Amino acid sequence: MGRRSNKEERQEALRRYLRINPFATDEELAEKFKVSVPTIRLDRLALGIPEVRERIMAMAREARTRVRGVTTEDIVGELVELQPGSLGISILEITPQMLVQPAGVARGHYLFAQAHTLALATVGAEVVLTSSARVRYRRSVYAGERVVARAMVKVKKGNACLVSVHSRVNGEIVFKGQFIIITP
Amino acid sequence: MGRRSNKEERQEALRRYLRINPFATDEELAEKFKVSVPTIRLDRLALGIPEVRERIMAMAREARTRVRGVTTEDIVGELVELQPGSLGISILEITPQMLVQPAGVARGHYLFAQAHTLALATVGAEVVLTSSARVRYRRSVYAGERVVARAMVKVKKGNACLVSVHSRVNGEIVFKGQFIIITP
């Protein structure tokens, strides 16, 4: 009886958590809810929530229809949310090809390219040109990590836009960037 | 008689010019010396100076032997000069794959990647980590253009290095960057 209500509580919490963190993997969810990965899979099945890859694909299909100024192929990472002129989110999975040898960490310009292309898409104009950028690397990123970048249009002044991007791995900030983008 | 000494003067000027601008193409030289491209080719033949591609390859072979901290494959563009701890030069030819559609200009993160990887190589340490970067895009870059990036280590303080990079097309600055690089 008690166990059943635990399970229901957990599933309700899981549903709420995924609404805010739709990109969490089963592994991350298992750790968060202190259960096994198969348990999370059964919970998702019971709730009718598809696996992370499918959730991302569905959001990506939706987001892609709103891209202007760059093509979706230009975007480094998978665009999963886009409110042109306001907000954009993309996910970049770090693959072994992205690593600097011999250090074994992701090349910094991949994080830059993810943030930069996301910033351009987030501006949402037909023509976008980057004027300047300031970026800060907070910690090294490793193979297998998923970098979630979130871009926000902070200031619009004339034909210039300031876009701020925060990139996180498991909620921890790994990269911050500010881009001044011109829409001539 | 007069024509011959004109030719000798031009060849001497050409030799001097190429010592300072070893990456000039025959087309650029023809424009600079107000003669035809075949004339430049004959001049180079007379002087025993190989074509630009070969000159770059020879310098690149030499520069590559001095790379530390990154692998030569990591470097975006062709590394043509490297004095570790002091100076580095690389050349990036803009290919159609690097263009943003529909604008038709080179994606800004290629210029960033060229400058960034060059800055890392120029530091010349076994392990290099980027802490932050400030970059400025001065003008758009188009297909077929050759971007010559020049990196200089400006300040060393403890385990941090400030590397300044200027990227030019035909002598005109198209991009400037400053990178803070840590050598732990």
Oligomer: homodimer
CATH topology of the largest domain in chain A: Thiol Ester Dehydrase, Chain A
Q: Which regions of chain A are unreliable across 5 or more consecutive residues at pLDDT < 50?
A: none
Q: Structural class of chain A, please? A: alpha+beta
Q: Give me the count of strands of chain A.
A: 8
Main attributes?
homodimer, 184 residues, alpha+beta, Arc Repressor Mutant, subunit A, Thiol Ester Dehydrase, Chain A, 2 domains, six-stranded antiparallel β-sheet, two-stranded antiparallel sheet, 5 helices, 8 strands, 36% helix, WH_DNA-bd_sf (chains A, B), lipid biosynthesis (chains A, B)
Q: Would you kindly provide a written description of the structure presented here, covering whatever features stand out?
A:
Chain A is of the alpha+beta class and 184 residues long. Helices cover 36% and strands 32% of the residues of chain A. Chain A has helices spanning 2-20, 26-33, 37-47, 52-64, 108-123, and strands spanning 78-83, 87-93, 99-100, 105-106, 129-137, 146-157, 160-169, 172-182. At the A-B interface, helix 5 and strand 5 of A face helix 5 and strand 5 of B. Chains A, B: GO terms for molecular function: DNA binding; DNA-binding transcription factor activity. Chains A, B: Keywords: DNA-binding, Fatty acid biosynthesis, Fatty acid metabolism, Lipid biosynthesis, Lipid metabolism, Repressor, Transcription, Transcription regulation. Chains A, B: It comes from Neomoorella humiferrea.
